[in-house]
Amino acid sequence: SKLTNLGHLEMTWRSRVRFHPLLVRILHKSRLRYYGKPEKAMDMPYQAYFEVADGSGMTSMVLWSSLCPEWYNSMKVGTVLLLEQYAIKDSYPFKTQPTPGDSQMKRFATIEISLNDRNPPTKISIIPEEMVKPEWGLPEVKYRFITRSELDDLPHNYSCDVIGLVTFVGRAERARKREHCEDFWLYRWAHAIDGTSDHPFILELFATSQPDVFEHIHPMTYLVCTQMRVVRDLTENPSSTIYLTTSNESQIFITGWHKGQPYTKDTKVKNFIQWMKSQSEADQIKKTVIGGYYPFPRPPDNLSDY
């Protein structure tokens, strides 16, 4: 069938009601959002954002309502989609923006693709990777992996991807989303090493929409975290309080989940695997810890400051 592209859609969408099919690759995936309220009767108040791209550039795609439980887990980073009967809308200005791995890619920030179960009901097809043709011109997924030795030189809020061997994982903890509210974020602390520094990555891992991964992080697993943000406490010694925290688009992978992921082709990932092959598993196991309370960043010295 006749295909369109994102660049053409951005220029012509206001003058059209129906659009030609669209072929895109998913580059980023947000956590699933629940927006239900007690006073509103809605069957499936779910929403998820994706960043998708073709040869012309990148834009946001929103999955709505009952399409979320049906499609969310199938739509992975790197998945190629054929979309039909979708809608185009003005983009929502307040959503979070992931940092693209390819800084040269054009971004169409004024529009977003809306996938609904009605008005019109979107037809979604997943194209297996072995059937994807080079002439379609779809971009590859690119990453921004860093090593632990590079972390100390990175600025606050820098976006990056990391891989390491888990040496510590803390218990799951809760923090209120806002003061005096009943909603909580669930998170846990972890340490991971990659052989480039004496210090580990300190990772604040909030529960994403991957409970099966979040609950099974344990020492000696290979941990990959994407779209992490650098956090520096600039008021104290910056190097001692530097850590990484998850963002809305973070994805977490552990041993058993790496096969077929696009990052397996990345040079720094390959370097880490080579380093791990040179390590003694018995020696590393002796250094691992699990559970317990982990006060980080360190609380102030006196109670009044705290």
Automatic annotation (TrEMBL):
Pfam families (UniProt xref): RADX
MF (Gene Ontology): single-stranded DNA binding
Domain of life: Eukaryota
InterPro entries: RADX
Protein name per UniProt: RADX protein
